[in-house]
Amino acid sequence: MFLTSIMQSFLLQYYLHHCYLVGMKLKTALLGLIYDKVSEGKQAGRQEGIKARRKEERRKAGEKEGGTNGSRGEGARGGGGRD
Rg of the Cα trace of the chain? Predict the structure, then answer.
């Protein structure tokens, strides 16, 4: 009886230790995958942000040029008040 309880305790301890190790490995793998996915998303977001910022800068630069050359552009099309 005593030997049986020692053996049961040993096997239960081994089983729990094994489950703990498997759980830690799964947790580490899952966290690694999540971290990689989040990093990809942030990188893509940064790239889109950079593209959007450059597009906005080009649009603003176009407005500035369009505002100074607007009357010349209308005259070239024939609608600048030459009647």
Answer: 35
Range of the domain at 49: 19-63
Q: What would the pLDDT profile of 16-57 be if each residue is shown by its tens digit?
A: 999 999 999 999 999 999 998 888 877 777 777 777 788 888
Tokens representing 16 are 């729990």
Rounded CA gap, 9 and 4, in Å?
A: 9
Looking at the structure of the chain, the number of domains it has is 1
Full 3-state SS string of the chain: CHHHHHHHHHHHHHHHHHHHHHHHHHHHHHHHHHHHHHHHHHHHHHHHHHHHHHHHHHHHHHHHHHHHCHHHHHHHHCCCCCC
75 neighbors 82 (Cβ within 8 angstroms): yes
In a domain, 3, yes or no: no
What's the pLDDT score for residue 83?
47
